[in-house]
Design a protein that fits this description.
Blueprint: E1 5-8, H1 13-24, E2 30-33, H2 41-51, H3 78-87, E3 96-99, E4 102-105, E5 124-125, E6 131-133
Amino acid sequence: MSTITIYHNPACGTSRNVLAMIRNSGEEPTVIEYLKTPPDRSTLTALIAAMDVPVRAVLREKGTPYAELGLADEKWNDKQLIDFMLQHPILINRPIVVTPLGTRLCRPSEAVLDILPQPQRGAFSKEDGEAVVDAKGHRL
């Protein structure tokens, strides 16, 4: 069993880049396609706590019902915001990666490099061609 888990959306370029960087470190993570298998309340709450970020930092606005639900309104408390994320998993920003070194919302995708237990095994460029890691596995 892998020691790394990624809450992944295969339609998201950032999520695909993060998954590729995890694999470039020699690890095969547990991949949870969170739109198909959303986290339950306790898991989502634990992930947010482990990231040590406000609940609002995990809300995704683009391509979601964020605006139509009025989620920018400060009247919503953390419990209510989590309720919305559970009802509409697309509101959960991604990718979230859990490793023995920490839990992080990996935006930008290079943020995953700070929590991977193993270094990159070789050069890595994002889907858009941007080089992130050189041939020796060093971050650029």
